[in-house]
Amino acid sequence: MSSNRESYNIRVLGKELYNKVASSKVLLVGAGGIGCELLKNLVMSGFKDIVAIDLDTIDISNLNRQFLFQRQHVKKAKAHVAKESAHKFNPAAKIESLQSNIKESQFSVQWFKQFTMVLNALDNLDARRHVNAMCLAADVPLVESGTQGYLGQAYVIKKFETECFDCQPKPTPTTYPVCTIRSTPSAPIHCIVWAKSFLFSQLFGNSEDEDAMEEDHSEENAQELAALSRETAELKQIKEAVGSADYAKKVFDKVYSTDINRLLSMESMWAKRAKPTPLDYDNLERESAAAETSVVGLPDQKVWTLKENFEMFKNSVVRLATRYLKEKEAQSDAILSFDKDDDDAMDFVTAASNLRAHVFNIPTKSLFDVKSMAGNIIPAIATTNAVIAGFVIMKAYGILRGDIKNNPRTYLTTGSRLVQEANAEPNPNCGVCRSRSATVKVDFDKTTLRDLIQKVILLSQEEGGAGMVEDEVAIMDGSRMIYDIEFDDSVDLKLREVGLNPGTIIRVTQDDGGEDVDLILEAFDASEEHDDSLKLMNTIPKPKQTKHESEEKKRKMDGDDADLDHLSRQTAKKAKVSHQVIGDVVVLEDDDEDLVLLD
Ligand SMILES: Nc1ncnc2c1ncn2[C@@H]1O[C@H](COP(=O)(O)OP(=O)(O)OP(=O)(O)O)[C@@H](O)[C@H]1O
Ligand SMILES: [Zn+2]
């Protein structure tokens, strides 16, 4: 059977391409919706050497489309089960499965270099950005893909030949002003974000972060911000009573009565808005008991009554508090994080957001609706994944033919129309793919940041270094700044102490607008002789821009139209002093908007 498949493949692809397919080594990142389709396509179209990585386990909600998984596989590692199932399609294929996060340092640039190509089948920006950067650093072609409902896309990324994943800025995520979420909600989504990102994380997540709302703020809402800070502090105090018999009542009284009464006392806030109405626990308790309201069998797709939401609130607080305490017993710093597939968390967020909606006279929602809004869910369509996974294989053939320029981007657009678009040239201002890069071998427990600066960054270009000027240099690890002339506390620390690990790529930027340099940090091999604390493995490529162009860039950066590089650097500097994370929402101080929630 497999030899039949082989002879068909040879007939379809031709001997030359088939041989390339059969001898290439492919990395598949993600074994979810697109990943399952893709792994099946790979083994059936002649790819024989595949590494599949996925960090997750199988959830029951994956089974409708991730067809390599069945009911008996629920809770098992996606990567391992995908390997077992796909292997049955073509036993001649060698598949290695890894249940890991692709961002782990063991998957270094060196490790990426073993692959002929990498295929992304991911579901988040962060991991996509990381694989993009690693493939650029290792100079390995990447096929990027994604789907959302009926829409999808697949395209090739190759260093210096095509746009990379970060060449075009990505749309910023939806933001909500903190005051809308915390004081003046006007739509169901505001109540859902409050329940999920504020209340849930304050009660069961990590509420120990510094409170960014104590920063300096404009006059007019100082009173409101002070009230918000007080609310948060009081909630922290209530949290001490977690597990006590009246815990749900304490939380309820605070967020649906005390806080609402405090808001009502700020009269100017309600001059042009409908006033909220506090809820009374004892009244609701009586009415609910009289009506014999129960949480048993409450339907997902029907909107619950006020009494049902009340009962569900109490019930889910007890369930979550019990779990929280149990996890804390095992590990003192344990927290619960919101997950749309966690029934306790969904019951809580639905009830808590609906109660808040009652207070503010906003329409309430069914659990089903809350789940799709809280989880930002757009239904995944199996057919879209299958079509896109098919195109990924066509792109892979294009790479093996050596035909990257003529390998178009494919989009599945509205009305199920397929659109092909020529692959664009790299954006000359892209801070990710246009940077110069070099690999530096270091001893993470001996080499200091100063060594790196002196022996690589300030080393002249003639001697193979970056030839930068000390005062102008800043070093970033992702969005985290680790050094600049005003922020040099870590300069004598060992790289490990600075939080750098093998595989980390640090970005060296220059204030004078000169081109950035990426340094890929790798550890010396155990057997490797080295007299020095570091070894620059290749000379750093000279800048592509002339001095004149760099000066022009600096002039632009100092003007109104600061480019993205500059902006992200400024944001990183600012975030260093003024960001906090509540659940998965970042609260950033913003000059115009006071505080914004970034979901
Ligand atoms: N950093 C990462 N390293 C390895 N695998 C990752 C990483 N980030 C995401 N993934 C995997 O990528 C896959 C993406 O698949 P998909 O978009 O179908 O998501 P899903 O989690 O399976 O489905 P849903 O989100 O709809 O429940 C998931 O299996 C996920 O575990
Ligand atoms: Zn780019």
From TrEMBL:
List of residues binding Zn(2+): 164, 167, 430, 433
Binding site for ATP: 30-35, 54, 62-65, 78, 123-128
Domain Ubiquitin-activating enzyme SCCH: 328-371
Subcellular location: Nucleus
Pathway entry: Protein modification; protein sumoylation
Active site: 179
Pfam families listed in its UniProt record: ThiF, UBA_E1_SCCH
Zinc is among the record's keywords: yes
PANTHER family for the chain: SUMO-ACTIVATING ENZYME SUBUNIT 2, UBIQUITIN-ACTIVATING ENZYME E1
Protein family: Belongs to the ubiquitin-activating E1 family.
Protein name: Ubiquitin-activating enzyme E1-like
Source organism of the structure: Mucor ambiguus
Organism lineage string: Eukaryota, Fungi, Fungi incertae sedis, Mucoromycota, Mucoromycotina
